[in-house]
Amino acid sequence: MRALVGDVGGTNARLALAEWKGKAEGWTVLRERHFPSGNYAGLTPILREFLAGPGGGGAAPDKAVLAVAGPVDLGRGRLSNRGWIVDSEEIARETGIPRVRLLNDFSAVGHALPTLPPSSFTVLHEGAASSSGERPPIAIIGAGTGLGQGLLLWNGNRYVVHPSEGGHAEFAPRTPQECRLLEHLWTRMPRVSWEGVVSGPGLVNVYRFLVESGSMNESPETRRAFEAGEPSRVISARALEGADDTCVEALDLFISAYGSQAGNLALTTRAEGGVFLAGGIAPAIVDRLRAGGFMKAFLDKGPLSDLLERIPVRVILDTRSGLRGALEVAARD
Predict the structure, then answer these.
(1) What end-to-end distance do the CA atoms of the chain give, in Å?
(2) Tally of structural domains, the chain
(3) Which H or E run includes 64?
């Protein structure tokens, strides 16, 4: 049996063709390729190009499991930050794949989570094991092109994955500076969500706030770097290098907001099984996340700070966890 799996986001679409070797060996990935999403009008042309590539000219795979960055309902998904409508029936018709399943991208990460080895994680906060002997909820949150969230709940036999669109909830400031950030963003967008602050584009929003409010200056070097590269990556890189004070301040404000919303998610779900940071940004800035600003904001929950103190917090370093989760689903279906 062969399966096409994908982790499709607003920036990149990651696809793999894999062959099932049985329970003892599992999946063998035959080939894998990443596509820049912005170069295509939709997902179907990407799938066609991948399947027509080297090693893909034969029969269509037996099934496809595609994780997409947005809500999925009744076989249809919408990429929140790309505007694509993805339809499982259309994909089956256009590619000849008889069985196509769509799921939310953070659902895929949730399916992968129990299978990842310890080397796939780094610890931000050790926390404490649950003393009740039960399997408590686990929460996933991850900044990338957007802000994904998900939840794992124990059903008595295994963890069941529940997607969430909590990244689109309204941004709630917790400091005077964040209040000024919110007021600044209100003048530029009709509604400010957590994703508008805690994401790649959100980091750029934070940087622009610091410059346009007059609280920080924009260096000519950073301005030139924006012309040559993705602004969010430029800000992160220059902040981590210590090359630009404004980039450092922007990244620290971003990390504080990230920690605050991760703490909100932990409180909302009582995720005493742990909070896991997924997505493309956290692994790239993990040293800065360890510096303290993230956990300070995460734990700043008034009388319930003690509850948050018990919750483990880890970063998922495996950037292929979405593909791994899609393969887990393909093996079960």
Answers:
(1) 12
(2) 2
(3) strand 63-68
Between CA 164 and CA 106 the distance in angstroms is: 8
**264: number of CA atoms within 13 Å, CB side?**
17
Find the angle CA(120)-CA(47)-CA(60) to the nearest 5 degrees: 100
**Bridge partners, 87 (sequence order):** 76
Cβ neighbours for 101, distance < 8 A, ≥ 6 positions apart: 63, 64, 65, 66, 75, 88, 329, 333
CB of 29 within 8 A of CB of 11?
no
Residues 288 and 307 in one domain: yes
Residues 136 and 271 in one domain: yes
Contacts of 331 (CB under 8 A, 6+ apart): 20, 26, 27
- For residue 259, how many C-alpha atoms fall within 13 Å in the half-sphere facing its CB? 26
Residues 8 and 50 occupy one common structural domain: yes
User: Are 104 and 21 found together in one domain?
Assistant: yes
Provide the residue range defining the domain that includes 143.
117-317
Are residues 48 and 149 both part of a single domain? Answer: no
Whether residues 145 and 46 fall in one domain: no
Q: Return per-residue pLDDT of the chain as tens, 333 residues.
A: 999 999 999 899 999 999 998 877 889 999 999 999 999 999 999 999 999 987 655 679 999 999 999 999 999 999 988 889 999 999 999 999 999 999 999 999 999 999 999 999 999 999 986 666 689 999 999 999 999 999 999 999 999 999 999 999 999 999 999 999 999 999 999 999 999 999 999 999 999 999 999 999 999 999 999 998 899 999 999 999 999 999 999 999 999 999 999 999 999 999 999 999 999 999 999 999 999 999 999 999 999 999 999 999 999 999 899 999 999 999 987
